[in-house]
Amino acid sequence: MQTILPKKTNLRLTLLGGQTFIAKNLSNNKYLVTLTDGIIKISRNSVKIYGDITPKKAYRFLGLHHNYDKIHEKLVRAEPRLEEIIQHTGTILLLQQEFLPTVISFILSANNNIKRIRKTVGLIIKKWGKPIKVNNTLKDRYLLFPDIDTLYSLDEKDLYNIGAGYRASYIISTIKLLKSSELYTTLKEMSSEKLYSEGFKLLQQLPGVGPKIADCILTFALGVTYTTPIDIWAKRYLAVYFNLAENKSYTYYRNFLTDRFGELTAFAGQYLFEYIRLLKTKENKSY
Fold first, then answer.
1. How far apart are CA 130 and CA 198, in angstroms?
2. pTM for the complete prediction?
3. In the chain, where are the structural domains located?
4. Per-residue pLDDT tens digits for 194-228
5. Which CATH architecture does the domain made up of 11-286 adopt?
6. How many of the other CB atoms lie within 10 Å of CB of 138?
């Protein structure tokens, strides 16, 4: 697959910063992403796909259908302080992932941390993923993220035993609902504007999915750029940059950001999220 990443792309922040939990760092800024139908190997200079995944799907997964130079220009016009932040973080790609892994991963994210989420998602792949050979050799053998039929055969105990905790019941119930309903089909047929409002409410019918997780799914799987998840880090950057109190409602923060950034809200959210984490944790060496 021939592709060129945008200049100054920060793959670490893109793939390990909290948008996705199905990517891992192989070595020397090389990453492996596990999907339900193939894998993507990504480095600064190349993107390689294996399995049944199409180049178009890989391209959209990495958010390469966006023009980041133009997005950055518009963001800086909307909020001049973002210029320094973007220069500091480099380009953060906005991923557009598969629906099922995204739903499961973010249900697991409730009251959890990135390290533990990645570990549990990794165990789901390890225990129930189907094998795929790369370069047709056993040495380069990888496992795919399990499909909904495989996950449907599991019970709560299976997921509890790999660290899902109380979230296991939510995941099993959500898988059953997705398997038996047209919810995903309904979401796919909605425009971005409808997804922002109606899709936001519809997703919260899934067990374990509240407003924040609904926005994670909208932003990182369904390609809605009018919103961004509001978590503890978002509340911190809203307090630091916009002087908002940290005790407002989720709807208040959501509306504030959408009113401020419009269709660029998801991009603004990623830069503000990563930069406030940098300031709070003082991990300057990582950038």
1. 35
2. 0.93
3. 11-286
4. 999 999 999 999 999 999 999 999 999 999 999 99
5. Orthogonal Bundle (1.10)
6. 7
